[in-house]
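Below is how a single chain appears once it has passed through the pipeline. First comes the sequence as given, then the structure the pipeline wrote out for it. We keep one example in the README because the format questions we get most often are answered faster by looking than by reading.
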Amino acid sequence: MAEHFRFFNSAPGDIREYQAAEFAEYFSRFLSDGLYTEENGKAGLKVTPGTGLEVHVAAGYAFIRGYMYHNDAVLTLNLAPADTMLDRIDRVVLRFDEVAREIRLAIKTGTFSSTPAAPALEVTATVKELGLARVF
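Resulting structure:
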């Protein structure tokens, strides 16, 4: 067992360096995983239809496992082409990947089927996806 304490300023001869994981651990104690509203009260990272096979994701903030994500402008994502006979449900996700050291918006493409289901969200020790929207 050990005691841990963090975030004191460095003093002469005492170089204190903190890792991102230590800050994430701190923030995860009081900021839950999820999306945050914008200053004007609108939903952050709201997904809306675009032209053709596009979806737009509004500006916004999110926290996943103590790490912050910020999209500062509308971002356009492209869906894969549709099938002429079968349906599909895609997901728009915000994907945290600790190994790649990034949080990015992504499309998870579903499987064509007469009874389609949305792809499952991935949650592992190093990856966590937040579902933002399902697109039929």
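The beta strands are 34-36, 47-49, 54-57, 60-64, 67-71, 75-78, 90-97, 102-108, 127-135.

See the next section for the split statistics.
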